[in-house]
Amino acid sequence: MLVEGMLAGERAALARLMTLVENRSPAVRAIMSRLHPHLGHAQVIGITGPPGAGKSTLVDRLVARLRREGHRVGVVAVDPSSPFSGGAVLGDRIRMQQHCLDGGVFIRSLSTRGSHGGVPRATRDVVRLLDAFGMHTVVIETVGVGQTELDVMRLADTIVVVLVPEAGDAVQVMKAGLLEIADIFVVNKADREGAARMVMELQQMLQLRPGSGWDIPVVAAQAAHDIGIGEILGAVARHRAASARTPRGLVGGAARRTAELADLLEETLSRRVREALAAAPSDLAAVVDAVQAGTLDPYTAATRILDDPATLARVLASPERNERQS
Amino acid sequence: MLVEGMLAGERAALARLMTLVENRSPAVRAIMSRLHPHLGHAQVIGITGPPGAGKSTLVDRLVARLRREGHRVGVVAVDPSSPFSGGAVLGDRIRMQQHCLDGGVFIRSLSTRGSHGGVPRATRDVVRLLDAFGMHTVVIETVGVGQTELDVMRLADTIVVVLVPEAGDAVQVMKAGLLEIADIFVVNKADREGAARMVMELQQMLQLRPGSGWDIPVVAAQAAHDIGIGEILGAVARHRAASARTPRGLVGGAARRTAELADLLEETLSRRVREALAAAPSDLAAVVDAVQAGTLDPYTAATRILDDPATLARVLASPERNERQS
Known about the structure:
The structure is a homodimer. The first copy, chain A, is α/β, with parallel strands linked by helices. Helix content of chain A is about 50%, strand content about 10%.
């Protein structure tokens, strides 16, 4: 029902599907199976860079420009949140109010959920929902530049790395792994001191790279003053044209699809493991109790469970009630 | 053999065990089971903050100071590396050469490995190896401030967040989730403009936090000039005394140990899944082929495997040869 509603253009259905996907509901696989024939139309642009680079403002301006050109645009803002409180910064959720009443824009903030890989998985599925919903462009914005953010960026067809003159020297860019993922560099807040030097440093570093058929441009911008936005979108369009024959992003090749199958299996098996340990059925109870009491270390306990096929099978038996619903 | 050698103080054995652990060898569980009785002595200090904050220099100075006080010190530098090349920045591996000939120091760089959660797992086990090896203090340093880095920081007894005046305003600190994990703030490069204002801003933000029995100090430092190092170590010692009764870091309580058991099960199951898909035995081959050819979407394929207990059991059967060796 929700999927049909979403495909028919209902924003409320889209929002509810996003919540299911963000919470990694057991229904995700069934939902995404039904979406699959509708995928592969949106262009996905990733925007990343260190905190304070002005990415939020830049995304605002890109969205406004794309809207003026008639594009329907989805925005996924990936927020880190505290591992302790689970809360996300509210600022991003409300910052793009100017677009809120515009039916051609859909904005979603994703905050970090507990388990490893939760954010890249949720981001992947939210982007696919926006694609199936009919968005021409989906912008993924990350707040930081850690491994999760790099994983998320792999979903994009074109990756824009945003820096500011204050971000430090070339070594810092390399340290954060940004040099190797960037398709386009933007030096934002280019009216600040050191901007010209940073553009030059980046260009010098890029000259040292082995040729790949795409010369990574360095665009100077002042997002707050709407300067450089057209140049960035022009560079994105050129990159898209140059890389049209190399599947990336949401589509990928055979290897990407196999990795995704593995990831989906892992995600469900992980959930079943955690549910089984929480419920601790009879044949697991003794092991779990000993680990909690500290009389058995987790490594030894894991080996006992993994080496006993009967116990393992019971741990991983499908809790049918939960997984079949959709 | 390696474990006995390491416990007897052999650095070469320690290094080889670290390589096994970093590569997530199937032997990890057996190794760590044998180490477990030797754990829980080292104090673990986490150092995090945005790229360019001078963390590497600060760690150098902390190590030098701790060595002068007679501490044996382990350092784990968690480097992000490109998801494409798999390479790590070499700078950090060679930067602490001054300590290399000092038998009381052991330095290890960990780079990001492919799978989700690989770095936090490797870091946890490397820190435990250093603990069992007899280090009094283990310093974990991260390069960035993403989710992986936050996960890694949870291993620490005391978390030091390093900022510089240029890092931007208070909102940026909150965005990166740093406010909620910090036990101690350091404003490094405190001779730069804006340092006093940043110290004040942080103190104001900290006053808004609910009381927790620990007043988070903000220390101004200039690591490059060896200024503030004693103050930081003093704050770490005070934090340790204040939090001695709240198990954290490597030890944790019952909930932490259960989560670790779940994590270890997940890690091995993920490996078995990936090995099974790569080998694609007879009853899996048709599904894997269809996914690779693009005629079956990964979500539907995952459901087919997960809903068939016999197939699932064969996917997850222990490849005894690989996992029993140690």
